[in-house]
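Tutorial handout. Part one gives the primary structure; part two gives the three-dimensional structure as tokens.
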Amino acid sequence: MTKNPDLKALLESWAYDPNDCVRVVTLADGREVMQVRLPLGIEQYELSGRPDGHRPHDAESAFDYHLERSQQAGTL
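Part two.
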């Protein structure tokens, strides 16, 4: 977590414009993410994998995890 979690500066630096409300930015770790500016905030999505960045059971998605399990069990 950052030392100052206040988002005010970020929100003020990117005014809401319904005709221009999406951008792709590169984070400090080199990942690119899509940011969507909403009237009351910002949403951020991963561009690869799941939008929330999670890897259930260390797989790309829960579907991929269960598909692999089914294939290993010989049910597919």
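Part three, for discussion. The chain has a mean pLDDT of 87. The beta strands are 22-26, 32-38, 41-46.
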